[in-house]
Amino acid sequence: MPDERPARSRRGWLFATVAVAALGLGILAAQLWIRPAAVAKDASALLAITLPDTSGREQALGQWRGRVLVVNFWATWCAPCREEMPLFVRAQREMGAKGLQFVGIAVDDAAKVRAFADEIGLNYPALVGGYGAMELSKTLGNSIMALPFTVVVDRTGAVALTHLGPIKEAQLDAILRQLL
Fold first, then answer.
1. Do 86 and 30 fall within a single domain?
2. What is the pLDDT of residues 40-91, one digit of tens each?
3. Three-state SS annotation for the chain
4. Any idea what DSSP says for residue 157?
5. Are 52 and 74 within one domain?
6. Positive or negative CA dihedral for 88, 124, 45, 129?
């Protein structure tokens, strides 16, 4: 009868390896999703940047200083980004006169951004940030550099909220009512 210890020890070793890998992935996920990321407390770096709009004109984010500024990092190829943008269009239309300003920073090509903006009737500036926009979002707390990523800046220039993933209407309305 052949010795079964090598097969059992291989199974045990394989089980232990899978268990350790699962534990490691669980810890990593907890760090990324549960623990809040280190986020810039003020938006001075964000307000200091200048990016081109879809026509190539440079736009300084600082021009909206003193308003409640909602900066949304997005791309035309990002389905959740496309789904949340009509909510932003509505909020800009309804609350813009109260001091609200949305700005989209696209991780995309200007022509694609312009076509999509026309398609949905975008009523706020769409700036083109390219891959550098992802690096900027990382400094604001987007540690996994995913889209969409939204930053809400209050009138004093403090970061009031960062949100990874599509933002829900109730959450957006609650933070905007608090800040406006």
1. no
2. 578 888 999 999 999 999 999 999 999 999 999 999 999 999 999 999 999 9
3. CCCCHHHHHHHHHHHHHHHHHHHHHHHHHHHHHHCCCCCCCECHHHHCCEEEECCCCEEEHHHHCCCEEEEEEECCCCHHHHHHHHHHHHHHHHHHHHCEEEEEEECCCHHHHHHHHHHHCCCCCEEECHHHHHHHHHHCCCCCCCCCEEEEECCCCEEEEEEECCCCHHHHHHHHHHHC
4. S
5. yes
6. positive
pLDDT band at 9 (very low <50, low <70, confident <90, very high): low
Output the pLDDT for position 40: 56
Q: Locate tokens 């939204």: which residue? A: 150
pTM for this model (two decimals): 0.77
Q: Which domain holds residue 14?
A: 1-35
Q: Catalytic amino acids?
A: 78, 81
- pLDDT for 104-141, tens place per residue? 999 999 999 999 999 999 999 999 998 889 999 999 99
Q: Indicate if 28 and 75 belong to the same structural domain.
A: no
